[in-house]
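---------- Forwarded message ----------

FYI, see the Hsp70-Hsp90 organizing protein 3-like record below. Original note from H. follows.
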Amino acid sequence: MADEAKAKGNAAFSSGDFTAAVNHFSEAIDLAPTNHVLYSNRSAAYASLNKYSEALADANKTVEIKPDWSKGYSRLGAAHCGLGQYNDAVSAYKKGLEIDPNNEALKSGLADAQAGAARSRAEPPPMNPFGDAFSGPEMWAKLTADPSTRAFLQQPDFVKMMQEIQKNPSNLNLYLKDQRVMQALGVLLNVKLHGGAGAEDEEMPESPPERKQPEPRKEEKKLEPQPEPEPEPMEVNEEEREAKKRRAEAIKEKEAGNAAYKKKDFDTAIQRYTKAIELDDEDISFILNRAATYLEMGQFEDCIKDCEKAVERGRELRSDFKMIAKALTRRGTAYVKMAKCSKDFEPAIESFQKALTEHRNPDTLKKLNDAEKAKKDLEQQEYYDPKLADEEREKGNEYFKQQKYPEAIKQYTEALRRNPKDAKAYSNRAACYTKLGAMPEGLKDAEKCIELDPTFAKGYTRKGAVQFFMKEYEKALETYQEGLKHDRSNQELLDGVRRCVEQINKASRGDLSPEELKERQAKGMQDPEIQNILQDPVMRQVLTDFQENPKAAQEHTKNPMVMSKIQKLVSAGIVQLR
């Protein structure tokens, strides 16, 4: 199933196994190739693997299938950013914001893309004399062909370094100390660098004179002047020390706040967290802790303000997405606590959904499901009106008398929305379904009617009628008899019993036509109760005795339980008694 593969992909993505996530999402796409969400999820997985070309292809497919879905443009923008195509990313994010102007992820992505575009215009990459050596697939072909670099391609860190250099040749300066990179550079430029020369120098017999040169080196070290602009680094270090000191003090305040929180001294905790925020505004955990304290104090509006501040500041600082998700989840929890009607759950549900786009956490998912259920229950309670339900049921009765059964069903359904515990509405709708030949729906409504009011005789007549039409005569008889326990003089129930007995006796006498017998046998063999009787070793022996051992069969007839099962087999046309 596509949903199962999707769920596995989501789990793998959440655990950081992006390769497995890609595989699961690909499996789901094979099963449901028009599901835009699957392409969106696989795009995110590819992006996490830095495979931005594949991510871009999936993002394009997402918006192609579902052009009015804002998240598709978020995926598209992220893929373009990964490829350094900032102008295209800006266009993608803007299209998404046209659909969903309040989407925080799109706003944040647009800001990143615009900043990237500005950087690319303001700071053009410096020309690198080795740039051509790293361009195109020829680089990998040369490294694979040369025996001295072929083994390096099996080393992930080397491959990653070469990918970074290929993406931006200026990055070569970052990896010049790595001998493997120098070896690869030599291969790409068709020259020998460092390694070859060193080897030749070591083999030369006349190298001792070169070793006796420590003095000039020492002199060079002595002659090196101390850097003159010492005051500036001292000032920078002083600032760093001050910042570290403030951070340390902020952490102490946070720990003191945590201790007060555990003791339920919430006022002190608020003071401590506030002091921590003043000392260090680059750690949103302080804001989140204060929000949690406000939540415990029942100051939900203050909690929501802190959560929104944490999200905003977290975006500015590029904080961990899990922290952003935690802030959004906490905001949703505050909204749930404040909810008084079904509509109040909408901002909570929105907050939980946004949190899940940042980080798919099981606790957040449960909170979302609970909020959606609470909203639905409240909507039902708000819609509840027994008086209007009775009016809708009466309208359904009028349609029923006119034999307009679909219209009657519509009115009975509305009556049940107004009053879900109206047994009569279920009974009447069951009658409509029976008239229309929708037996499973009719049976379900009749059973619900009996569940709501076990003493209501109509529920049993409705259920018995459905079972009778389905040719389940034994079950129908049991239903009618159960109804008679509550209303012994009910004529409909008595007539139902009589009709069922006639049909059962008809089978017992062997009066069924070949077609009727064949149909009844086929239906009986599908009945789990009949299957269990036939598989029972004791009953199989009883049936054998009825055929081969009349004396034993006579004894079996004295057992009510055995005869009850025999009667069920006879009614189903499986066994015939002569």
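H. also flagged this: The CA atoms of residues 484 and 490 lie 7 Å apart.
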